Structures are given as C-alpha cells and as structure tokens.
Known about the structure:
Elements: E1 10-14, H1 19-28, E2 34-39, E3 53-58, H2 67-71, E4 76-79, H3 86-91, H4 93-100, H5 102-114, E5 119-125, H6 148-165, E6 170-176, E7 178-180, H7 193-202, E8 207-210, E9 216-217, E10 219-221, H8 222-234, H9 236-239, E11 243-246, E12 252-253, H10 254-269, E13 275-278, H11 297-303, H12 311-327
Parallel strand pairs: 1-2, 1-4, 2-3, 4-5, 5-6, 6-11, 7-10, 8-13
Antiparallel strand pairs: 9-12
Helix pairs in contact: 1-8, 4-6, 5-6, 7-10, 7-12, 10-12
Amino acid sequence: MDSGVFHQKKILITGGAGYLATNLITQLRETDCLVVRVDRPGVQRMVLAGKMTLRDIEADLRDGAVWESLLDGMDMVFHFAAQTSVYVARQDPRADLAANVLPMLHLLETCRKKSFSPMVLFSGTVTQAGLTDVLPVNEDCPDRPVTVYDLHKGMAENYLKHYTHNGTVKGAVLRLANVYGPGPASGSADRGVLNSMIRKAFRGEALTVYGDGGYLRDYVFIEDVSQAFLSAAAHMDHLAGGHFVIGSGRGHTIRQAADLVAERSAIRTGVRAPVVTVESPPELSIIETRNFVADASRFASLTGWKAKWTLTEGLDASVAALMAREEQ
C-alpha cells in the first residue's frame, strides 16, 4: 500500500463495524489519517488502534438528512453498508431498496447539492452479472441479474457511474467474488459461507454441501480484497466511472473447498470435520447454481494489484486466527 495516498486524508467508511470495513481499517491503522466509521446504532465495533485517528458515528443511512454532516470535508468514501442477503431481499424488496440503493442516492445527491467531491468506492458483487455463459468472467460480461439483491446492487452502481460521468464525484465499483478470511462474522446466513465452514470445522462440526457440490466458486482472501480497495483509491484517475471484477482467478468446486477446509483445520486441531451432502432445499436461489471464476486482469493492469493468497494459504491463516482468538 502506498501510505502517502492516505496521509492526512479524511476517510469515511460506511458499514464500519462490518467485515470489509474492519479489514480495510486494519490496513490503514498505521497511517496518519482520520477514519470515520459509520454504522447503525447498537452494533459492536472491534477496537482498532494505531497512528490513525478513528472516530465512530451512529447513523441511519436511509435518512437523507444525515449525509451532509457525514460527507463534509471528506476526501474518500468507502461505501460498504448494505443488506447482504439474497433471501431477505427476495422477501422484502422495498426494504432492500431502502438499504441498498437509497443510501447511495442520498450520498451522491448530497455531494451534488453541497458541491462536495470525494472519491467514492463501492463494494459490488460478481453475482450482479447473473448466470454467466463463459468463464472466466471479466467486465465485458453483460449483466443479467436474477435476484432482487443483485438488481439493487446494480442500481446503486449505476447511480455512482452516472454521477461520476456528470462530474459530481470520482467513483468506481469493485465487484467481489466469494470473500473469506479473518474478521467479524457476516450478519447474513447466505454470506460468508466459507468462513462459516471454517468455524464449524474448527469445532469439529459437520460441513454441509448441497448435492454433489460441483458448482465452481472463486474464493478470494480478505487481505487481497482490502488491498484491492486501497489500490483502487490510489489509481482512481484510471478507474473512475467503471466497475471491476475482483477475485483470485482460481476456481474450486464447493465440494473441493469444503474438503480443503476440513483438511487444513484438522492439521491444527487434530480432528477432521466430516463433509456431508444433502439435497438442495426447494427455496434455494437460482444464483446458487452459478459457476464463477474471476478474470481480474483489467483491474490488475490499471493498478498493479494482484491476488497473492492461495486458498490453502488463506485457510491456514483463517484457522490460525481462530486458534489465536480461542487462546485469548
């Protein structure tokens, strides 16, 4: 990370207590900067100390009135706040719209009306493209969203692109593959599945795989993702107005990943968790039947970033972090 890019900058991070934000702030902790992490009232935040100045604010980002005070003077915004469950979005599309689209619109309209011009980075998802026909997937793949969640993520992304093209802000979107690694647990049962497997394997509990577990996924380690966002901020002049696919570039079936979780955890714990197969539940979203491998070469060519962690290395680091936490 080029710490000079962030030196004495004022950085707003929404979803501040969450998984992405906590790991990003960890990467910034030894930089002389102000980090303002924003989250809804009542959430628990990890204590993170270092050279940075860290300020916590509680706010409901669905309320347009809160954004002026949040954005005033900010150099950068990492917008991570989101409702992340495909199933919750399907159950209540209006609430998902309010959580995943309106905050972005409030952010951008506040910038337009108040002449604020921060850099804005948004966390998208590779599932916005839907069920893709060709692997690996890059930015040229047309979007055919098959869930309400992905439809709304795409709407928020398009708002950011529109306001970037109109000169209000400089913004870009990183569409993330399956992120895993140490950090706070996801608030949604259908997110952070690999992390959930790691915790279960550590406890010796069975790991459940639907069907034959043959669908391909691209598992990308959280440190690589944090570095991608920092690299994006450092190279925004090359990225503004675009979206970029972020992944490891390596595909593993869900069954392969589960077996590897069991194997790597057993090396540390001495107990190998069983991997069991069950029938897919009838309510399973069609997006779960996708095959996906990322082609992040465009982002790499513009920023110099690359995914460094293999799945084995990332799993070992994740299990080690769990063990360290248990020993505290």
